[in-house]
Design goal:
Layout (H helix, E strand, L loop, with lengths): L8 E5 L11 H11 L3 E4 L6 H17 L4 E4 L2 H6 L4 E5 H6 L4 H4 L3 E6 L2 H9 L4 E5 L14 H11 L4 E4 L7 H5 L5 E4 L1 H4 L2
Parallel strand pairs: 1-2, 1-8, 2-3, 3-4, 4-5, 5-6, 6-7, 7-8
Helix pairs in contact: 1-2
């Protein structure tokens, strides 16, 4: 998949539960980064602060070695404490962070959006980039129809910050996404099974 990205970016989103039993998350991340991943989003929602921090520190060694950003999903304290490049969160949580502008200035902020209005508001509130999805049907959102390429194009036209597409992106449909104005794609399943 990484050889298909052309001049766009591929963000790897982690999910250690999808990894083959004979491997571990750090090995998978190293493979992805070696093959051309442009950023890693550590998204392990079930881990407490200490466990996420420990895992983040191990992964940061890899991302620093390859000089790519490590972004922590859902835990701003871990992101700041390990000096990660960025913090990623959902739209509602980002809105609730209003009043924490001093913290938000210390780190790049990414926000997941599912509607054009959310994208516009997230940019106004100071998001540095957006993840828009889900574009295609995906096992992560069973039973929910993908929002499609038209949705992605609308989001890209409505903001000036980078937009990363997520959701069901595979080798057979990545070109459709990369032909839009999207900055790149985020992949989970295909990356974790590398």
């Amino acid at each position: 998949m990484f050889n298909l990205k052309e001049n766009k970016k591929i963000y790897v989103v982690t999910n250690r539960r999808l990894i083959d039993k004979n491997s571990n998350l750090c090995e998978v991340i190293e493979k992805c980064v070696f093959k051309g991943a442009d950023a890693v989003i550590l998204r392990e929602k079930d881990l407490d602060y200490e466990m996420l921090k420990h895992l983040g520190e191990k992964i940061k060694i890899i991302t620093d070695k390859y000089n790519i950003p490590l972004i922590i999903n859902g835990n701003i304290k871990v992101a700041l404490d390990i000096n990660a490049y960025g913090f990623h969160t959902g739209f509602q949580n980002f809105k609730n962070m209003k009043g924490n502008e001093n913290i938000l200035k210390k780190i790049a902020i990414g926000v997941s959006v599912h509607r054009e209005e959310e994208a516009v508001e997230a940019e106004k509130l100071g998001a540095n980039y957006l993840i828009a999805g889900h574009i295609f049907e995906t096992d992560c959102k069973l039973g929910l129809k993908g929002r499609g390429i038209e949705f992605l194009e609308k989001i890209c036209k409505s903001v000036t910050i980078p937009v990363i597409a997520i959701g069901g992106i595979k080798e057979d449909n990545i070109k459709k996404v990369l032909n839009t104005k999207a900055y790149g794609v985020a992949i989970m399943s295909s990356a974790m099974k590398i």
